[in-house]
TrEMBL record, chain A:
<feature type="transmembrane region" description="Helical">
    <location>
        <begin position="45"/>
        <end position="67"/>
    </location>
</feature>
<dbReference type="Pfam" id="PF00137">
    <property type="entry name" value="ATP-synt_C"/>
</dbReference>
<comment type="function">
    <text>Key component of the F(0) channel; it plays a direct role in translocation across the membrane. A homomeric c-ring of between 10-14 subunits forms the central stalk rotor element with the F(1) delta and epsilon subunits.</text>
</comment>
<keyword id="KW-0138">CF(0)</keyword>
<keyword id="KW-1133">Transmembrane helix</keyword>
<dbReference type="InterPro" id="IPR035921">
    <property type="entry name" value="F/V-ATP_Csub_sf"/>
</dbReference>
<keyword id="KW-0066">ATP synthesis</keyword>
<dbReference type="InterPro" id="IPR020537">
    <property type="entry name" value="ATP_synth_F0_csu_DDCD_BS"/>
</dbReference>
<dbReference type="InterPro" id="IPR005953">
    <property type="entry name" value="ATP_synth_csu_bac/chlpt"/>
</dbReference>
Automatic annotation (TrEMBL), chain B:
<keyword id="KW-1133">Transmembrane helix</keyword>
<feature type="transmembrane region" description="Helical">
    <location>
        <begin position="248"/>
        <end position="267"/>
    </location>
</feature>
<keyword id="KW-0472">Membrane</keyword>
<dbReference type="Pfam" id="PF00119">
    <property type="entry name" value="ATP-synt_A"/>
</dbReference>
<dbReference type="InterPro" id="IPR000568">
    <property type="entry name" value="ATP_synth_F0_asu"/>
</dbReference>
<feature type="transmembrane region" description="Helical">
    <location>
        <begin position="132"/>
        <end position="151"/>
    </location>
</feature>
<feature type="transmembrane region" description="Helical">
    <location>
        <begin position="171"/>
        <end position="190"/>
    </location>
</feature>
<dbReference type="InterPro" id="IPR045083">
    <property type="entry name" value="ATP_synth_F0_asu_bact/mt"/>
</dbReference>
<feature type="transmembrane region" description="Helical">
    <location>
        <begin position="41"/>
        <end position="60"/>
    </location>
</feature>
Amino acid sequence: MTGSIAIIGYGLACIGPGIGIGLIFAALLNGIARQPEAAGLLRPQAIFGFAVAEALAILGFVLFFLAR
Amino acid sequence: MSFTAALALAPSFATEDGGSFEPPAPAEFYQPVGTLLGVEITRSMVLALVAFVILAVWLLSTTRKAAVVPSKAQWMTEQIYDFVRNGISRDMIGSKDFMRFTPLLFALFVFILLSNLFGSLPLANFPIMSRIGFPMALVLIVYVIYHAVGIQKHGLGGYFKSMVPPGLPKAMVPMIFILELSTFFLVRPLTLCLRLFGNMFAGHMLMGVFILGSTYMMLSGSIGLMAASVGGWVMTFLMQLLEFLIQAIQAYVFTMLAASYFGGAVADEH
């Protein structure tokens, strides 16, 4: 069996952003459930947070290709 | 990306029957189609030109005879413009300065959206932004503009001063300043560029893996693998739906982040 250990490393690195993005949308759903009329206000902020959390996974993705 | 389109339009993705499974490699995103005046033309460049022509024709034809009671096409254009103007630009920049930036943001949004959708549309079947030069060029525009408007607003010294929020303890100021400086000059353009590139590149490659893997299993000749390929095709379909969602969200996120950088640069003192 051959391959690059970097693949496993990238998989592990995705756990963090994955949990982070989950928390962000969980908080968004919580917020909308508590105050449905605030949904329009909350959603851009949530996607903003999602983009920032996702950047970490993307950086890992690039480093994965650098490490190959 | 349908199966026949994948085989017909991305010949480098096709498998050889009987051989072992070869997953798509990053090198397959480099697809030169010829040279023009000594400059190599790639598939991305041709598609970017096509996207430009489509957008120009669409926008000109729907806004040329703009009427108070809009036609269906004009109504659709207005809805998309309204989404960018009110949903992104005004929300992020504030109602004072947003009209200066709205045309740029609208152009960015429709161009990125169409070029991302090209990754899944038959005939095009290649996301323009999966070649890093294209997101780089877009980010360069955003990068220059948000620094320029920030310096225009605050003055050169005031711009650097505005990076540090007021009211910090004296000892914290140098540390926060260095952190903010790297955010403004390195992290923002880097993440903005890599996010768009990484998503389009990884998404297209993932679709390649799913389609090639399913095709390979389907043509393998062994009953077990052929049965498993049904699950593979179902997953391919579901991943394709997710891919459409990601393509739209990435266009939205890019435009929104650009708007928030502009908004931060023109904001008054905290």
